[in-house]
Design brief:
Two copies of one chain form a homodimer.
Chain A lengths: L10 E8 L3 H21 L1 E9 L15 E3 L2 H6 L5 E4 L7 H10 L4 E3 L2 H17 L4 E2 L2 H4 L5 H7 L5 E7 L2 H12 L4 H10 L8 H4 L2 H15 L1 E2 L6 E2 L7 H9 L2 E11 L5 E11 L11 E8 L3 E8 L3 H21 L9 E2 L9 E11 L4 H11 L4 E7 L6 E8 L2 E2 H12 L4 E10 L4
Parallel strand pairs in A: 1-2, 1-4, 2-3, 4-5, 5-6, 8-14, 9-11, 11-19
Antiparallel strand pairs in A: 7-10, 7-12, 10-11, 12-13, 15-17, 15-18, 15-19, 16-17
């Protein structure tokens, strides 16, 4: 790509960067390395003019060019020589205040902050619209995967009914290692920590909080509703055993931590994060290691999947850069993207959601037990798709493994309570949802 | 989504449709069914005002509302009551003339016409830019998969080095059935024809022409270069045998028809379509049946994949609708998207391209043969990654199966010529490329 002599000289857009850690550093390097090419393609020349950091004297690997380093982030969002603000510091405050100030000053903002957007997205999008500027956040949902823009723009006319994501790389790495290497949860977590995929306190990842925040953002833009991370039901992967994974594989499934955002025919929505048995022929089953993927179901388009790196400096900076270019081109053209109006979400209660389940039940190995157990499912309105008995002949107990058709979660709960009350039932070892048709 | 009372009343954008077959009919239905929701989200109300068809008296399933049906497509592209032109008739002419007229009249155009864009894309993009209007073509490359917009916008700053696509659903269906059901090529083709996936004359699909045209468009936008379908080297799937597929599976590969667009360090590019052995753990290996997928490699973002339906009325109409909304919003805002300037492509000759190969060689089963055969690879600069001997002991001939490291195609050709000249070599049964690192 070379510049067209007929094309007007590129207009310079100056980026003010809040935070210069892994992502901010990678972004600065990308802007420096790619600005000629970007100028030739888009007519916009990017430059990083100001960078707010916690400690300006700390030595840095990246070449900061002529950008002004400051420890005062508030000075960046109002600076005259900043046209677009990029926020990669994370957390609610001071990010929320800084972004609010930037938008009020008429400056477009690009943010990678899932926590902030999951809790205060609707309010910030409205503020951006009111001031006629962009608030873009591709990197906040699935790292380097272009998903927010295709969902907002390419699928703007599509009736999206369900979005299913593997949107936490740490847990996908752990589950992949448990599946492919036969590691225990503890071993896989330790390796994830050694590789830097998991924090010393892994709760945000393994407890499903991180995926829940991202799922709230996804549901908001997919369905045009205002909801927050608190509206997401989430379960983590700490209860998934090596035995569950082995049984799942034998039955033709992979266990994945899925975020599921659904809209039902009555326009109610539900967002939940939980370990799920995914049929091996489903595209999400082959998403391995720390990769992420988002699977979309729409009435006209059918099934789509977007796959890539959900974290890491390079991929995240790539997504931020795409947004910076978009905001810059819009700024030069005097236009901006809008998310439209978010209506309050009508949330369907968890107990009313349809789910298929995998259940492993220890029972006394005696005549009539299967009929008794199966009868409990039936009287509670839960239909059985498949059943098999596991365990050597002659044992005093047998293991029954059930997969149900989709049933109301409340009906499955009632089934479990009744089963536990039976003398012939020893224990219920596994209760894992199974991915099925919407 | 409901309309915001503070939001200005939606501005109506009138669509003129060229062609009302499967895609045009599905689009008309989508616009009718989704226009309220689209208006609420984007502030633009779409309506189909004119439709050009071959036979206006033919009964049609779709409700055409108040649109004017005409057999004169030229009247649609210049009509005062048409704001955006959608071309879904296909082929070079009259589509090229009609689109040219529309762009010259200042009307944005959305096209699903891969043949036209693969041959005259650069010229038409330049014309659109010169008239300050959009020419969008999401549906021309991978049907319903949002890929062109993410590549153009989300990855505008990314240094994309390679794009690998399964972009022909017919051949992917045939190869999947040969792999999973053990069908012969002839059986799988017959079934594809019965299902309507393949034409009576299947040459365009099975010969790799369709994939080649799409690959030319992909390479153009990925690398910002002007090239056409004639610049694409293509081989079809007609030579792929059930035996090749069985051997590939045994070695851990799936055979797929891949389109590969690469840019090398010297900025030369190459685009080729050929059957390829894909390692089973690669995301493209699990793209089954008539699904399509495009895999992207970029220096910052790493690996991405976009997966979905590459054909069919609903998915294609969904992609067209996304473009129509984009063009309409741009029209209302007075802006337009630009592909930037396409430079002439520096094409690297096929003989200079790096490829790993799978080769099956029938040899006399006698001492020293392996050393002789392996020596031919070495003297021609082709490095062997793995070799195994197949066939029962005591046979007069043995089958040697090689997988090479990436080598110049010219060196592999020289190796094959030399091998064929050897007395101990009976025949070379299979020569299939193997997907490797760029």
């Amino acid at each position: 790509v070379t510049e067209n002599p007929d094309r007007p000289a590129p207009r310079t857009v100056r980026v003010g960067l809040l935070g210069c850690g892994t992502v901010g550093g990678a972004l600065t390097e990308l802007v420096t390395g790619r600005c000629d090419d970007i100028a030739a393609r888009t007519g916009v020349r990017l430059t990083v003019s100001r960078i707010a950091v916690r400690d300006a004297r700390r030595p840095r690997q990246v070449q900061l060019a002529d950008a002004v380093l400051t420890e005062d982030p508030a000075s960046v969002v109002t600076a005259d020589d900043v046209d677009v603000v990029v926020e990669v510091i994370g957390g609610i405050e001071p990010a929320r205040t800084l972004i609010t100030t930037a938008l009020r000053s008429g400056k477009p903002v690009v943010s990678a902050n899932k926590e902030l957007l999951a809790h205060h997205g609707a309010e910030l999008f409205e503020l951006a619209d009111a001031h006629g500027v962009d608030l873009l956040f591709e990197a906040a949902v699935a790292g380097g995967i272009p998903f927010v823009r295709p969902l907002r723009e390419s699928l703007a006319g599509e009736d999206v009914t369900r979005v299913i994501g593997i949107i936490n790389g740490t847990t996908n790495y752990i589950l992949t290692k448990m599946t492919e290497e036969g590691w225990s949860y503890t071993e896989a977590l330790a390796e994830a920590q050694a590789l830097g995929y998991a924090e010393a306190d892994p709760t945000a990842d393994v407890g499903g909080f991180d995926a829940g925040a991202k799922a709230a953002i996804i549901a908001g833009i997919a369905f045009g509703v205002a909801l927050s991370a608190e509206d997401v039901h989430h379960e983590g992967i700490t209860e998934v055993s090596a035995d569950d994974i082995a049984t799942a594989r034998r039955l033709g499934f992979q266990i994945k931590l899925l975020a599921v955002a659904e809209r039902f025919d009555d326009n109610s929505v539900a967002v939940r994060v939980h370990p799920t048995m995914v049929p091996e022929e489903h595209p999400l089953a082959s998403v391995r290691d720390s990769f992420n993927a988002v699977f979309v179901e729409g009435r006209a388009v059918g099934e789509l999947m977007f796959y890539g790196r959900g974290a890491g400096g390079g991929p995240t900076a790539s997504a931020v850069l795409g947004d910076v270019i978009d905001a810059s081109v819009n700024l030069v053209q005097g236009s901006h993207a809008s998310l439209g109006v978010f209506t309050p979400a009508s949330l369907r209660p968890q107990s009313e959601l349809p789910s298929a389940f995998y259940l492993a039940v220890e029972v006394a190995d005696q005549p009539g037990v299967l009929a008794t157990v199966a009868g409990v499912f039936g009287t509670n309105g839960v239909s059985i798709r498949s059943m098999e008995q596991v365990g050597a002949d002659g044992d005093a107990t047998a293991r029954l493994v059930f997969i149900t058709h989709a049933a109301r979660e409340a009906d499955v709960s009632a089934t479990l309570i009744k089963l536990r009350s039976l003398d012939v039932v020893g224990s219920i070892d596994s209760v894992i949802r199974v991915l099925g048709d919407a």
